[in-house]
Design brief:
The protein has 2 domains: 152 residues, N-terminal domain of MutM-like DNA repair proteins (Alpha-Beta Barrel); 124 residues, Helicase, Ruva Protein, domain 3. The chain is built from 7 helices and 11 strands. The strands form 3 sheets. A 5-stranded antiparallel beta sheet has the order 1-7-8-5-6, covered by helices on one side. Strands 2-3-4-9 form a 4-stranded antiparallel beta sheet, sandwiched between helices. The radius of gyration is 20 Å and the shape is globular. It is of the alpha+beta class. The two termini are 28 Å apart.
């Protein structure tokens, strides 16, 4: 699943392609993807434009230029997009004799670019001939209409957002609390801290010299401060290098993220620790593959 840096990369790339461009055709191939609101979804988007694409954690919010009344007391103002585990956003536009393609999300094979295909859920066609495909192999992702109150309700379920003014040390300590869960479980809890997934949780723990299986309650003040500092440090660097690719992530330009070259422990089982020379280990913790160096993470 793409994490905060990967979704931010997708958001930035799509903003340059689809904002303020009229949507002239909407095709829904899998009703579940739009919460079974086929007719309303088509009416709300056709002839409309996206004026902005925002993000919270791993969720993208496509803001509609013109709101659309879907009931007496409900006006859609946004489309919420979540790629979940296997979602893909693929944009195509033919320029002269060349086909421009950008894509992001789950791993992309040659067959994925034969569009539309059996995994295509929704197709948006713009008046500049650009086409945005939403594909999803396992169908956990979605593109659904949302009112302002819907958006606020969804966002209220997210924790503090790294790389924003709200990510203060005080708020970070409150998010950690004194729970009995491990620090990795705490970092992955989207209701407490939004956007960190398996890759960056391991990298943050390594950066802070903290064993990811340590209980939150066992952390010292110095360790908590280090974790707080490492989170934006790691995420900023990952965004700068367009995210991480190890098996299944391509960014929205169809390119592999190159933060892979900077990973310290994730997906490096059996390799030498770049800090102490020990051997990176991988275990299963709370159902997630967890990477760490037993030599320098305590």
């Amino acid at each position: 699943m793409p994490e905060l840096p990967e979704v931010e990369t997708i958001r930035n790339d799509l903003r340059r392609k689809v904002l303020n461009t009229k949507i002239v055709q909407v095709e829904i191939r899998k009703p579940k993807a739009v919460n079974f609101e086929n007719k309303l979804f088509i009416q709300a988007l056709r002839g409309n434009k996206f004026k902005e694409i925002d993000r919270r954690g791993k969720l993208m919010i496509f803001r509609l230029k013109n709101s659309f009344r879907v009931s007496k007391n409900r006006a859609a103002t946004s489309v919420l997009v979540h790629l979940k585990m296997t979602g893909q956003l693929i944009y195509e536009k033919k320029i002269k004799d060349k086909l421009e393609v950008i894509a992001g999300g789950h791993k992309l094979t040659e067959n994925d670019f034969c569009l539309p295909n059996k995994h295509t859920q929704v197709i948006l066609t713009f008046d500049d001939k650009g086409i945005l495909f939403f594909n999803d192999l396992r169908r956990f992702g979605y593109m659904k209409l949302a009112t302002d109150s819907d958006v606020e309700k969804v966002l209220s379920g997210f924790g503090i957002e790294p790389l924003t003014p709200n990510f203060t040390y005080k708020n970070f300590l409150a998010a950690l609390g004194k729970r009995k869960v491990t620090i990795k479980v705490a970092l992955l809890d989207q209701k407490k801290i939004a956007g960190i997934g398996n890759i960056y949780a391991d990298e943050v723990c390594f950066c802070a010299n903290v064993l990811p299986t340590r209980p939150v309650a066992s952390l010292t003040s110095i360790e908590k401060k280090k974790l707080f500092t490492c989170i934006p440090e790691i995420l900023k660097k990952a965004i700068k290098h367009r995210g991480t690719t190890f098996k299944d992530y391509l960014d929205s330009s169809g390119k592999k993220g190159n933060y892979t070259d900077f990973l310290q422990v994730f997906d490096r089982e059996g390799e030498k620790c770049p800090r102490c020379g020990g051997v990176v280990k991988k275990i299963k913790s709370n159902g997630r593959g967890t990477h760490f160096c037993p030599g320098c993470q305590k």
